[in-house]
Amino acid sequence: MDDWLIDDDRLSIGRKSVLPGEGFFHPDSFEEEQAELEAADALDGASVVVVADPDADGLACTALIREARGAGSLIPAGPHELEEAIEWVAEYADPDAEVYICDLCPDSEYDVAALDALVERAASVSWFDHHQWDADLAATVEEAGVTLAVGDSDEVCSADVALAELDYDFDDRYADLAAVTRDHDLWIRDDPRSDDIADFAYWEEPEEYVAVVAEHGADLPAEVEEYLAERRVEKEALIEKAVERSELREVDDWTVGVTYGRCSQNEVAEAMREQGADASVIVKPAGSASIRGTENFERCHEVAQQVNGGGHPRAAGCKPDIYDDMLDYAHHWTTRGAVAKQAIIDAFRRLEPEDDEGIETET
Q1: Residue ranges per domain, the chain?
Q2: Partner residues linked to 256 by β-bridges
Q3: CA distances from 114 to 91, 98, 104, 119, 326 (A)
Q4: Measured between alpha carbons, how far is 132 from 334 in angstroms, rounded to an integer?
Q5: For 144, how many CA atoms within 13 A lie in the half-sphere containing its CB?
């Protein structure tokens, strides 16, 4: 394949909105091989290791751990990379390393299959999170010898959990960072700085993000604000495209906004909420989707769990298992995610009814 075919810089906003980024077209095997090499290099001689989701919350945890422990080699891992990350740390980490796993929740027992080996190798393993955990998986993690701390996903982010659990006298800058991270991660959005840290974490390399917030906290320096302003020109254009192609669907007692596109999902979901959506589904060109709720719908994680995902009552993510070959992806792009949209809407319809107190009724 010619490089120019997947070169983002040459694409118009319209085409960029409906196609995945360059990284999508690299085989997973190649990406995993590169990630393992980078992990092995980062783990060499490390006394403290952090496995974290490389979003604002996971990276805030990393900054807190580095401040408290004076070190912390970062192994970035998204939810679908948790299994491999634990395996790599179990294989390459120093035998006396302190290991922290942050802002990640296992979806199945396979994600934590290497925990026994990791606990046996490391000096200690701690896990800080705030997602909705399956009780059996939580028990499996604790029985392996991991110190597990999971906060209330309606009240705290993972950085809040790390701040409370780490035995260290943090200054106010770190408490403020956790509060602003919570404002973004729980989709409260009362603090305008929360959009800044979310965008910066998304666009910048993880190590650079951690270094900046460790020095400045949530009050990002002027040069970062200038960088964000430049990047947001394209961001706003992609948001506009996704909002333009959005539609509202009536699903049982809810109005669900549905759209497709490479975009910032929170802003698109907010636009659909203003149009009357109780919940919003944003399907991405790479095949994943974001689900966002409101005060009228707080069951996003239940929807996501049915379609290969998970998350929080008002914010969740998933990737429906509907892609068997590249023809399926071609159909996905040309139909603007029609099959994925339907799979997620069907998951809304399969939700058990709730009684007046929000408790599921038996059928």
Answers
A1: 45-220, 240-349
A2: 249, 279
A3: 10, 16, 15, 9, 31
A4: 34
A5: 25
Q: What is the model's pTM? A: 0.78
Token pair, residue 337, equals 């995610």
Question: Token digits for 1?
Answer: 């394949």
Contacts of 239 (CB under 8 A, 6+ apart): 263, 264, 267, 268, 271
Position 122: which residue type?
A
Q: What confidence category does residue 356 fall into, taking pLDDT thresholds of 50, 70 and 90? A: low
Matching residue, tokens 């991991």: 146
Measure CA 39 to chain center.
20
Annotate 275-312 with DSSP letters as a single string. TT-SEEEEE-TTS-EEEE-BTTB--HHHHHHTTTEEE-
What residue type is 202 in one-letter code? Y
- The residue type of 154 is D
The 3-state DSSP class for residue 157 equals coil
What span, in angstroms and rounded, lies between the C-alpha atoms of 211 and 231? 20
8, 65, 259, 349 from 69: Cα distances, Å:
40, 6, 44, 47
Rg (CA), the chain: 20
H-type helices in 152-221, by residue range? 158-165, 172-185, 193-203, 206-216
Q: Can you name the CATH fold of 45-220?
A: Rossmann fold (3.40.50)
Distance spanning both ends of the chain, measured CA to CA: 53
Pairwise CA distance, residues 191 & 185, whole Å: 12
The label of the residue with tokens 């964000």 reads: 228
Task: Could you please state the CATH topology (level 3) that the domain comprising 240-349 is classified under.
Answer: Diaminopimelate Epimerase; Chain A, domain 1 (3.10.310)
Contact 299, 252 (CB under 8 A): no
| More confident of the two residues 79 and 356 | 79
Angle at alpha carbon of residue 74, lines to 71 and 77, rounded to 5° = 155
For helices 193-203 and 222-244, what crossing angle results, to 10°?
Answer: 90
337-351 confidence digits (pLDDT tens) = 999 999 999 999 999
Tens digit of each residue's pLDDT (9 = 90 or more) over 137-195 = 999 999 999 999 999 988 999 999 999 999 999 999 999 999 999 999 988 889 999 99
Query: What pairs with residue 136 in β-bridges?
Result: none
